[in-house]
Amino acid sequence: MQTVLSQRLAAVAEFVPQGARLLDVGSDHAYLPIALIEDNTISFALAGEVVKGPYESALHNVANAGLNDKIAVRLANGLAAFEPEDKVDVITICGMGGGLIAEILAAGKAKLASVERLILQPNNREDELRAWLMTNGFKLVAEHIMTENDKYYEIMVVEHGHMHLSAEDLRFGPFLMQAKSPVFCARWERELAKLELALSHIPENRVADRTAMIQKIDAIKEVIHESK
Ligand code: SAM
Predict the structure, then answer these.
(1) Are the CB atoms for 73 and 30 separated by under 8 Å?
(2) Whose CA is nearest to atom 14 of ligand 1?
(3) Which pTM value belongs to this model?
(4) What three-state secondary structure class fits 146?
(5) Mean pLDDT of 128-155
(6) Rounded distance between C-alpha atoms, residue 163 and residue 68, angstroms
(7) Which residue's CA is the nearest one to ligand 1's atom 15?
(8) Domain limits, the chain
């Protein structure tokens, strides 16, 4: 039976090129590589996991799907899961904080030279991750935002190259801000409501705190309320 991905992982899968040799870092259950093999998008993958429980769950699911010859499951920290002879050309890192994704990339940076594309799905700190990418010789080639179970998720498709991102780009995402999809607007409307509530609780005499909060609020209003 074909593995059914969450909408979040299905959205990530859309950006995996046909025929890629994939490493999925922090694969947990290994659903993403399994589904990509099953639908013939790819024919080889590595599933890397640093924690024993999820590693064992990945081993179990890969064996159950009868894919031991196509997916190697490795107990490894971050990019230590692959070697040059694996010829990995695409890496996915999904469902972790943006700071942790940047740390994983930084720790194995030299190994990224031979990798063509990174597909990253941070759960938070997207700005921090974009800043790391910009200062380390990577450029965004696409971004996507989607929602599932009342949460918003950003997906970044990254290749080697240069980009210059303003503070606004870092926070909102250059492609997302340009496309200004209904999901993007809903995500930032929700953030706006949160910050406006927080502002209402800051006493009038804490001027610096109020000013900082008002600036954050105004920046969001400018992005979501200006026409495309
Ligand atoms: N990628 C899957 C997804 O998006 O549904 C699983 C996400 S799960 C929340 C995060 C996984 O990353 C956990 O299984 C965790 O053990 C693993 N992880 C965290 N840090 C890691 C690292 N440095 N190297 C490999 N795996 C890591």
Answers:
(1) yes
(2) 28
(3) 0.96
(4) strand
(5) 98
(6) 40
(7) 26
(8) 7-178, 185-225
Pocket of ligand 1 (CB under 6 A): 9, 25-28, 48-51, 54, 77-78, 94-96, 100, 104
Residue owning tokens 């046909």? 18
Cα(8) to ligand 1 centroid in Å equals 15
Question: For ligand 1, atom 3, which residue shows the shortest CA distance?
Answer: 95
What is the pLDDT averaged over residues 49-59? Answer: 98
Helix and strand tally (H, E) in the chain?
Answer: 9, 7
- Rounded to whole angstroms, the Cα distance separating 100 from 93 reads 10
Nearest C-alpha to atom 17 of ligand 1 is from which residue? 26
State the Cα–Cα distance between residues 106 and 210, nearest whole angstrom: 36
Residue 2 confidence (pLDDT) above 90: no
- What is the Cα–Cα distance from 19 to 32, expressed in whole angstroms? 15
Contact 52, 77 (CB under 8 A): no
What amino acid occupies position 61? Answer: N
Nearest atom in ligand 1 to the alpha carbon of residue 27 is 1
Residue 96 Cα to ligand 1 middle (Å): 6
67-104: pLDDT as tens digits:
999 999 999 999 999 999 999 999 999 999 999 999 99
What residues contact residue 121 under an 8 Å CB cut-off, 6+ apart? 8, 12, 92, 93, 94, 95, 153, 154, 155, 156
Ligand 1 center to residue 39 CA distance, Å? 23
Question: Does the domain spanning 7-178 belong to CATH 3.40.50.150?
Answer: yes
